[in-house]
Amino acid sequence: MNTNKMKYRFLLMLTGCLLLVHPSMATEGITGNLVNVDWLEKNLKNADVLVLDASPGQIYTAKHIPGAVSVNLFTYGGLEMPVDDMEQLYQSWGISPEKKLVLYDQGGTFWATRLFFSLYYHGFPSKNIFVLDGGLSKWQAQGLPVTKDGTPAPVKGSFKINQTNEEVRVRLPEFLAASGDPVNNVLLEALGADWHFGEVLAFDKAGHIPNANMLPSADFFNPDKTFKSADDIRKMLAYLGIRPEQQIYSHCGGGVSASVPFFALKLVLNYPRVKLYQESQMGWLKDERELPYWTYDEPFLMRGTNWLQSWGGKMMRMYGIAQVSIVDLRSADAFNKGHVPFALNIPADLFRSNITDPYKLAKILGPVGVNASHEAVVISGAGLTKESALAFVMLEKLGQKKVSVFMDSINKWAQLGFAVTKDSTVVGPKKVPYDLSIPPTNYSGNFRKDVIISDPKSTQGLYPKVFIASGKNVPAKGQDGKIVHVPYTDLLDADGTPKAAKDIWNILSKAGVPRYAELVCFSDDPGEAAVNYFILKLMGYPDIKILVI
Questions:
Q1: 531 pLDDT band (50/70/90 cuts)?
Q2: Same domain, yes or no, for 399 and 330?
Q3: By C-alpha distance, which of 265, 256, 243 is closest to 195?
Q4: pLDDT, tens digit, for every residue of 104-149?
Q5: Does the chain have fewer CB atoms within 10 Å around its N or its C terminus?
Q6: What confidence tens digit (pLDDT) does each residue in 53-84 have?
Q7: Structural domains counted in the chain
Q8: In 392-455, where do the E strands start and end?
C-alpha cells in the first residue's frame, strides 16, 4: 500500500514537471516579439501560425518561405487606407485574433517591422505578432527551403479593428512641439547620413527636421541581419544621449524605416514612451507654414550678422532682453579701428595662454563683462579660425551656457548697413533704466571635465577612442589607439566657414572617422584640434575631446 502511494505521488510529480516543461519548450526560440528560424521551422505547418511575407512583390515572387502569404503593404496602399478597408485587407490575408502571426522580409530591413506597426496600431494583440529575426536571409543561411510557388489564398480571417492604438502614433502638432524641446523629447531619425546631411534630395529640401537625432535603421542589425542584442541597442542609445524616460518619436522620410527603431525600442527594450510619426519628413515639408529644415545637426553654433545685430544689439539691450556676450578676439589695435557694438575685447592670446588654467581665465572673463549664463558669440574677424575655435572650446570647458562663432567678417557687417563703432564698450553697473552698460559678473562657471584632456587614459567613453590628427601633418608623438588624419583646413571653405554638411560627412567617412567612438582631436597646435572639435560638434558627434600635447 505504501509502495503504491509512493508510485502514485511520483507519477503526479512527473506529470507536474512535464506540464512545467511544456510551455518553456513551446516558447523556446521566442524572445519577446522576435522568433528565430529554428522556431519557425518547427512551427511552419502549425495551423495556429500564419506566416506573412512583407517583402516587395518581386522579391516574394523570386523566392519565399513555403506557405508564406504575400502581404506587401505598398501594393495595397495599406499605409493610409480607411479602417474598414484595412480590416478587409487583414481578413483577406487570413488574419484572425487567435492566430500567431510571423512576419518576415529579406532580413536587416524595415518591411516586416512596418507591417508589425500597422497591425499593432490597428489593435491586433501584440503578444501574437512576431518578427522573424534575420528574415529570409537567416532562413536560407540555415539551409532551410524556399520556393517560387505561390501560396493558395488563405481562408478569410475574422480579425476586426475595434479601436486603433493612438498612443503609439504621433501627429504633426505634437511632433512639432517636441522638436522645440530636445531635453524631454527625442526625434529619432531612421535614415542614413547621406539623407540626413543633405546629399539626398528626396523632397524639395535636403536635410532633416530640426533637432532630429540620426540613428539609421541599418544600425539596429548585426551582419547576419538579426537584430542586435538589447544591450548593444541600449549602448547606441546611451551614446547618443537617448534615455528611456524621454518621449521618443521615431520618423524617417515617409514612416517606413522609422518602424525599425520603433520596434527595437518599444518591443525589444520595452521603453515606455515610443511613438511613430507616420507622415515623417513628407508630412513636415508639406505643411503650409514651410517649417525649417537643417543639414548640420547644430547650425546654431554659427551666427551671422542679422542674428547678432538683432539679439545682441541696442534695442534688446535697452529693454534688458539681450542674453548675448560678444567676445572679440582681435588685437586691441584691430578692435579699436572698428568693432561690433557692445563687443568685449578679449584677445585670443588670453585663451591660448590659459588653456591649462581655466580658473585663471574665468577670473579674467567675469570682470570684463562675459556672463556665463548668456550665449557667448566669438568673433575673430574671419569666420572659423584656430583662434575662434580655441576660444569656443575654452568657453565650453568653463561651462558657458551656450557658445557660438560669428561666421561673418566686420566688413560684411558694415556692407549690410550696420554700424561699426570705435567706441570702447562700457563695462560697469547700470546706473539708470535703459543704461547700455554691460555689468561685470562673477564668472563662476560649472567647469566641464572632459572637454580638454592631457592624458588619453583619463577618460573612457562607451566606444573605443579614435584619435583625429587635425593639422597638416600627424604629430610625431603618436597615440595608443586608432589614428585618422583629417587636416582641419580640409573641412573649411576659402572664407573660413565650414563646408557643406554632406561634404564634411564624406570627408570624415573617407578618412575613417567612425560614427560610434570617443573622438579625441589632437595636434601640435591646439587651435587646429579645436577647429575639428567645433566641426564635429556641428555635425552632431556626441563624444568629442581635445588632447593637449
A1: very high
A2: yes
A3: 256
A4: 999 999 999 999 999 999 999 999 999 999 999 999 999 999 999 9
A5: N
A6: 999 999 999 999 999 999 987 776 556 788 99
A7: 4
A8: 402-406, 452-453
Give the full edge-to-edge strand order of the sheet including 518-522. Answer: 452-453, 544-547, 518-522, 465-469, 482-485
Retrieve residue 252's grid coordinates.
524617417
Query: pLDDT tens, 535-545?
Result: 999 999 999 99
End-to-end CA distance of the chain: 88
pLDDT of 74 reads 75
Supply the mean pLDDT for the chain.
Answer: 92
The amino acid at 392: F
Segment (H or E) for 327: strand 324-328
User: Which residues on neighbouring strands pair with residue 30, listed in sequence order?
Assistant: 35
Q: What is the spatial distance between Cα 391 and Cα 380, in angstroms, rounded to a whole number? A: 10
> Do residues 129 and 60 make contact, with C-beta atoms less than 8 angstroms apart?
no
Alpha-helix residue ranges (DSSP H) falling in 44-110? 57-62, 73-76, 83-92
C-alpha distances in Å from residue 330, one per residue of 50, 388, 422, 443: 72, 10, 14, 22
Task: For residue 43, give the CATH number of its domain.
Answer: 3.40.250.10
What mean pLDDT comes out for the span 377-387? 95
> For residue 544, what are the β-bridge partners?
519
| DSSP summary character for residue 424 | P
Residue 83 CB partners (closer than 8 Å, separation 6+): 122, 161, 164
DSSP states along 334-385: HHHT-B-TTEEE--HHHHHHTTT-HHHHHHHHTTTT--TTSEEEEE-SSSS-
375 and 486 housed in the same domain? no
* Single residue among 107, 141, 164 that ends a domain in this structure: 164
pLDDT tier at 7 (50, 70, 90 boundaries)? very low
Q: Answer whether 271's CB lies under 8 Å from 244's CB.
A: yes
Residue 6 falls inside a structural domain: no
Statement to judge: residues 479 and 536 lie in one domain: yes
**In one letter, which amino acid is 413?**
W
Q: Please state, in angstroms and rounded to a whole number, the distance separating the CA atoms of residues 281 and 279.
A: 7
Domain that holds residue 81: 30-164
Confidence of residue 212 (pLDDT cuts 50, 70, 90): very high
> pLDDT digit string (tens) for 325-360?
999 999 999 999 999 999 999 999 999 999 999 999
Domain identity same for 458 and 474: yes
Q: Which of 359, 358, 347 is nearest to 394 (CA)?
A: 358
Residues 187, 139: one domain? no
Dig out the grid coordinates for 120 from the structure: 499593432
Return the C-alpha cell found at 77: 496602399
Q: Measuring CA to CA, which residue among 344, 456, 351 is closest to residue 393?
A: 351
57 and 135 in a single domain? The answer is: yes
- CA proximity to 195, closest of 258, 115, 111: 258
